[in-house]
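Database export, one record per block. Field names are fixed; values are copied verbatim from the stored entry.
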Amino acid sequence: MLAPPNHSLTETPGLPAEAGVRLDELFEDLVESGPLSIGYPCNQAFDYSPLHRFLGLSLNNVGDPFSGSNYRLNTHEIEREVLAEFASFAGFREAEIHGADRAYWGYVTNGGTEGNMYGLYLARELFPEGIVYFSEDTHYSVAKILRLQHSRNIMIRSQPDGEMDYDDLEESLRIHRDSPPILFVNVGTTMTGAIDRVDRILEITRRLCLPHHYLHVDAALSGMILPFVDDPPPWNFAHGIDSMSISGHKMIGSPFPCGVALARKSHVDRVARSVEYIGALDTTISGSRNGITPLFLWYALRCQEGGGLRERVARCLDRAQYAIDSLQSIGVEAWRHRHSITVVFPRPPQAIMQKWALAPYEDICHLITVPHLDHATIDVFVADMKASLHAS
């Protein structure tokens, strides 16, 4: 993992000495905590120092990235290039991306939650009387989004491994078949990395004769894994979904949360409106948007051209299996889903939880082998687990 540059602030002109000391201490604490943060999917292996000069500009990507803006300090052109690459990752064909009749739309967001909010907002605008169906393993923010939007919703049971219970979904859809279903699909659940199968969900809608439906996919982490593996399950726009959210700070890596919302352009066209003040279409959740984020994502993608992303994903998957093998060798029942870098194991002793930043839920826990998590760190963690288990 690349260590952030350490520029001491204790003698910065204009800054009180005590404030400089506090910032220096905070920096040291955060750098020390970085290697121990193995339970959360935030890749720390990045170096954006060549872009630091852009931080001296007030970059604001206000409005729709495809419509232009009166505010000229923007990175809309860069954002469109980023979106085109993500659209390719997410299953749009070349002609749908670069053809005269562009089929996709999107924008760079503040993170996965905003992308999910956009998809659910778009679905509700298209189907005001619709009911949102989501599994009990869905990210906690989705229930909050549904409360904010006052959307009717039904929680569906999950299978023991985190995947949606399709029998429960079918029964719920049958009972409420008079309302258009808005189906929230997890492509990599938060705790276990389980994938809800788009093909099975669409087969249920066909079996129940429900032609009017909407599928939103939360692919926060796996959206930058599945495009680069062999034989992925049906999960993207090529398989019939309507919108998607992917995070940028997880597999790609970023000093701040970010992501991409993607949708079928035909859906977005029905809700867009023009705003004279900004000289742009108002199609995003927020008005002003961070213009630095697209620049960082564009730079990261350029640095991974020529098979770099596929190689990175392969390394992460190999390390996930290495972590499983290492944990199983000391008697810990670790496992993962295919194509997942989320390693699940029983909740460890409190001493482990206090040292390592792990993500627990009830009786399970996980670590996630994002690119900065190397074999050496896994070895230290496993050694701590072994010592803790023997002590208990």
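Remark 1: The chain has two domains: 36-47+309-391, 56-303.
Remark 2: The chain has a mean pLDDT of 94.
End of record.
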